[in-house]
# Entry
Amino acid sequence: MVSKELSKIYDPKSVEERWYNVWLEKKYFHASVDAGGTPYCIVIPPPNVTGQLHVGHAFDNTLQDILIRWMRMSGRNTLWVPGTDHAGIATQNVVERHLAKNNIDRHQLGREKFIEEVWKWKKEYGGRIISQLKRLGASCDWDRERFTMDEGLSRAVRAVFVTLYEEGLIYRGERLINWCPRCHTALSDIEVEHEDEKGKLYHIAYPLSDDHNVRLTVATTRPETMLGDTAVAVHPLDPRYKDLIGKTVDLPLTGRKIPIIGDSILVDLEFGTGAVKVTTAHDFNDYDAGQRQTPNLPRIKMLDDKAAILSDIPDVLPDVLRQVAGKPAKKARGMIVELLQERGYLIKTEDHAHSIGKCYRCKSVVEPYLSPQWFVRTGPLAEPAIKAVEDGRIRFFPRGWENTYFDWMRNIKDWCISRQIWWGHRIPAWYCDDCGTITVSPTDATACGNCGSKNLRQETDVLDTWFSSALWPFSTLGWPEKTKELAFYYPTSVLVTGLDIIFFWVARMIMMGLHFMNDVPFRHVYIHALIRDAEGQKMSKSKGNVIDPLFMIDQYGTDAVRFTLTAFAAQGRDIKMSTERIEGYRNFANKIWNASRFAMMNLEPDFAPNAELMSKDASLADRWILSRLNSVIKEVQSALADYRFNDAASALYQFIWHEYCDWYLEFSKPALNQEEGSAPRKATQTVLSHVLETTLRLLHPIMPFITEEIWQYLPERVRRQRRGDRGRTESIMVSPYPAANETMINPGIEQDMQMVMDTILAIRNIRGEMNIAPSVQIAAIVKVGNKELGEHLEKSAEYVKTLARLQELRIGVAEAKPKTTATGVIKGAEVYVPLEGIIDLTQERDRLMKEIAKISEDIDIFSRKLSNKDFVDKAPKAVVEKDTAKLEEFRVKREKLEQSLKMLR
RNA sequence: AGGCGCGUAGCUCAGGGGUAGAGCGCUACCUUGACACGGUAGAGGUCGGCGGUUCGAAACCGCCCGUGCCUACCA
# Structure
């Protein structure tokens, strides 16, 4: 028999790669429109080409693969589109660092050569994460793998850009933007991370031009920017200062007079000194205040694109400028403070904690910087995107994220999409050297759209990497071509992603999808938690707390890792990853393996199951496990439908380990030990193999490898389905997903079985508590409350004897209690284990007293409850009845235990 | 500063108006013909605190305390 050759330990390594290759060869992952049916489509959140698989990816993609495999088995026309993201700034940085090792600076290479280098890098490392996803078992349609910068997607990017430009939804203008002086580019608002830092608040005196004895004190955290001040603002209602509005102050260290303005929005009466220096070119609030004033305040730029002090700031004293020019802002700060101190302008310095914006790619402090940039006017796009979620065309799971989405979308600001880097989609805009107009075109422009001149220069900026990501759900399906894929698979079914990119990505896909496809990009958004380390910290390389999923896979196997991640997928929480848990599920895989070995040891290789599962020969246990199986199928189905992955996982775990293995396999042994070909053996073999086979299919989306491996060992006629037979016995992944057969769910059977299990538990309990070794032979006597129970139990006597390891079992209404005896009480019966010569009776007394004490507590709780008139009157009738019955049951039980105790005295 | 979430067994976490749950860990016993990555039986919790609603609160509501995240124009 095959099973004899199988090891007792499941070895994932020998299984996983083999099956993955088979699946690939057989093209099971490939989707085709021509196959028809109902589409089910997911587009993968494209990992960065710089990326390595980390736990977050493993989590995200396991969940997607579960949905995809589930739906594929359920008969849907299922497509999972894979791909990668060029990740503009991130990738450029990586390649820059790479080149720096050889002392090469990208500027030495020049733009074209550098981009070539990035492509080389992409070619070499860009596919790394893809092969890692394959190890995870991801059943993506690899034939359709896309890259945000491949030809088709680049066309889509241009088409979108041009359309939005023509619609007036993309514009170019000089604005204050977030600038990363290290990456040397603009960033959008959400690419800035805020971190609290301890800083200082400097109080600086600005003398009034009229009267240098009167000095206005401003408080600032950034004294170096004072060289670019263009006003001082006070609150128009502030009694201290309101009369000064309209006068000027002499800006220290400069020869400049700047006005005192009133601005109730900029100035908070409570904060600092109540007077604010206004640096219109280097602070967002000041910029806005400058715009509000009439006339608008001038803007004096005093930092360059490296955040260094310019050498030509108007009206700055030459000796001051000589010192600070060219110095980075942070360094200049100290020098300016020193100068202010020397010259008597610094009043005081105090500690002050405030938050500082940092670049999300390199963590450098970002600088508000005035420069010409391209923007998407988001207002008109956001409106329909808000509506789509409001009216339920898109649903978030869990629901709570919708509010986060709404909050952001309702306060959305224009999106700065230009980046001053080289790696990315170059903006398809051309400046005419002759007439100065901009020509925007989907193809490379050769002549000015206005004057026809050929003196064109293409915009050197590239687009924000998230611009192309925003198009992902339709660009990957072929847009702007009207492909059949697009017609069939769009809108996609669900987007599975982490909470960290709701704004970056989810919101923008919704806006773009609605605008260009006139339909939502996906119907459901499943937002999962972020995986953190055991301390709840975000995993990052710099913290050294990264758990490498590939290492876990090597150690425990893919299925164990996947099951762990699935079990962790409770909604709306951070996930703290720990390796101990994986080990538990590795053991689970092994448990399944051994249960299957057991089943196969008891099946002839050419075994053919009975035509009817529930033949007249099916035992109580057989009927019971079928009832349980079908309940679990229902549970798993409904959990998956609601994205309650953890519920699906725990239902399966509970069922397989604690019902199928712990109870059913043990129950099945008496029947299986009967002679080959006998009816009871055949009936049990039928059920045993059916439940195993069905469970494997039920589990397959979560644990694809082990389920396939075992499934292939099952006799062919077991693999062939009874109902809805599609005749696919070649692979579990193309076999149908189990559907519950409600008629097999039978509460009566489950109740009967419970009685049997309770009896066994009562005897085992006595054994355990009395410390009776398993080798010691004991007998048990069950005194039943009525004849029917007795007959029922009599039929199951073999179960009880085997599982409770009894030498003898007597059942009856009239059974007398032997003299020295341990007693257990179950619903409707009493269980006696004669102890004569087996054990010291004081132990039994202790045990009984413990049990009586325990049950007395229960009785107290219930009798207090039931003697409460309000409870009896107001609680639902069913609750009261249930509790009354319980109380009665407890009382009977206690009485019996007390009798037993008395007899021992 | 606002928003969201969390606080349940030693640890990691489910659950959720009607007697507190799982995994790991712990204790005792067991190499029983599927599995020691195993089996059986146990120990262990006034469900963060205080109020309120209710016949009944760990669950619902308020406030507080801890903790995490997101958003933000705290000069």
Summary: Chain A has 30 helices and 29 strands. Residues 645-672 of chain A form the longest helix (28 residues).
